Amino acid sequence: MTARTQTRTRRAAPDEAVEARLPWWAVALPALAFAALLLLIAGPGQAEAATGDPAVGRLLGLMVGLLSR
After folding, report:
1. Are 36 and 42 contacting, i.e. CB atoms less than 8 angstroms apart?
2. I need a labelling partner for 69 at 20 to 30 A (CA). Which of 21, 28, 54, 59 fits?
3. What is the residue-wise DSSP string for 39-62?
């Protein structure tokens, strides 16, 4: 038995516009990540020890503890 093959393909006419729509977050998230990395690079050259409230450190430790369970 022989199988039929399709020899013709439908191509879009030059006047038919192909429209690709992106959700808002597909543009916003890479732009936000780029801006955050740019701010990290352009920030001050020397790191200083934090003398404020250690709440952020405790929060990060708690999150690591919860995720490692």
Report:
1. no
2. 54
3. HHHHS-SS-----S-THHHHHHHH
- pTM for this predicted structure: 0.39
What is the rounded distance in angstroms from the CA atom of residue 22 to the CA atom of residue 29? 12
Distance CA 62, CA 55 (A): 10
What is the distance in angstroms between the CA of the first residue and the CA of the last residue of the chain? 60
- Quick one: what percent of the chain has pLDDT higher than 90? 13
- Grade residue 1 by pLDDT with cuts at 50, 70 and 90: low
Q: Which residues make Cβ contacts (< 8 Å) with residue 18, sequence separation at least 6?
A: 12
- Please tell me the number of Cα atoms within 13 Å of 1 on its side-chain side: 2
